[in-house]
Amino acid sequence: MPTSSETDAVLAGREAVLTELRCAQRLIVVTHERPDGDALGSLVAMQTLLLALGKDSLMFIAPDELPLPYEYRFLSLNGLITQAPDDLDERTLVFLDCGNIARNPAASTLLSGTSEGPILNIDHHHDNTRFGAHNYVDPGSSCTAELVWDLARALDVELTRELAEALYVGLITDTGCFMYQNTGPRAHEMAAELIAAGVDVHAIYQQVYEGVPFGKLALLARGLAHAERYDEGRLTVAQLSAEDFRMTGAQESYAEGVIDHLRAVRGTAMAALARDRLDADGAAALDPAGARVRKVSLRASDMRIDVSAIARELGGGGHRAAAGFTTTLAWEDLIAFLREHLDAQLRVL
Ligand code: AMP
Ligand code: MN
Ligand code: MN
Q: What pLDDT does residue 281 have?
């Protein structure tokens, strides 16, 4: 439960962000790299909201993120830019669903030219570094889209179907279709309002979760075939190599969802999926020293485990039950690291 001073800080941040949004005329909205449903849903919703308020708002997505993962391609990208605009230093920057500035290398580059425009930081990660001039960071919120929904209501923006759909995408993807423990009454209240505004629940479900490319199914099969268990099954892991992606014709984003199967295995306290980052040619990405770069996703199945603390050890972060980091550790060293930290957390319980 948040303390009253934490609640006060959330409310103060909310007010400050509302004031800035009311006053600013020119803005840019950005989200984290490799954007997921909440990142894109809250980004597009914020852009839609700002345009509805008559603002001159641009939506920045780095060129290498485009085209978007197939699930999210139906979202409208009004005002999309892929390069910094000339008047960057006169614009207010609005970060969405981004726990720290390092999670958006492109936006960090974007920012390096400017320190003039204020940064607004709207997010729900408990380990958010509060990098904004104004931070509306509420870890009690199921998704960043829930915060954008709250702002839209406070700003009297009409909930059009387009806006409601973008918000709904963020809501269902971050709550696992209302099944994760972050799902509270507010998430369902929000859903009810979005449905009343015209969201076709089944159509969005099909858009986001069906129409699965065959390569995604084939990648899942490989991920499951690579599953390994350690420590009487308390740790369930799998890896996906650049070869797995090449053989199945899968894109990086197709790995989404594999870890849910690992997490669900009986006896698992923590699940991990390590996948090679791919370079532009689809080969394993290497760091300047020639080491293979892996993206690691962590999930807690035992609610006493805080995987975000483990991810932070290696420069990542996230939520207690879902977190991630990027590493060049060799596979054996990565397994040793995960076993050690899982064991340490279980021992103090
Ligand atoms: P993923 O495993 O990529 O689905 O991410 C799970 C959660 O961890 C999401 O809330 C992400 O925002 C967060 N996360 C993933 N990678 C990082 C990172 N490198 N730094 C901070 N947070 C992360
Ligand atoms: Mn996200
Ligand atoms: Mn989120």
A: 94
Of 32, 101, 313, best ligand 1 pocket probe by most atoms within 8 Å of the beta carbon: 32
Q: What is the mean pLDDT of residues 280-284?
A: 95
For ligand 1, atom 13, the nearest C-alpha belongs to: 318
Contact 130, 139 (CB under 8 A): no
Q: Whose CA is nearest to atom 22 of ligand 1?
A: 317
Bridge partners (DSSP) of residue 93 are 28, 119
Fill in the amino acid letter for 260. Answer: D
CA 6 to chain centre: 23
CA 310 to CA 314: how far, in whole Å?
7
Can you give the residue ranges of every domain in the chain?
4-209, 214-347
CATH code given to domain 214-347:
3.10.310.30
* Architecture of the domain delimited by 4-209: Alpha-Beta Complex (3.90)
- The tens digit of pLDDT for each residue in 33-62 reads 999 999 999 999 999 999 999 999 999 999
How far is Cα 79 from Cα 105, in angstroms, rounded to an integer? 21
In whole angstroms, how large is the CA radius of gyration of the chain?
Answer: 20
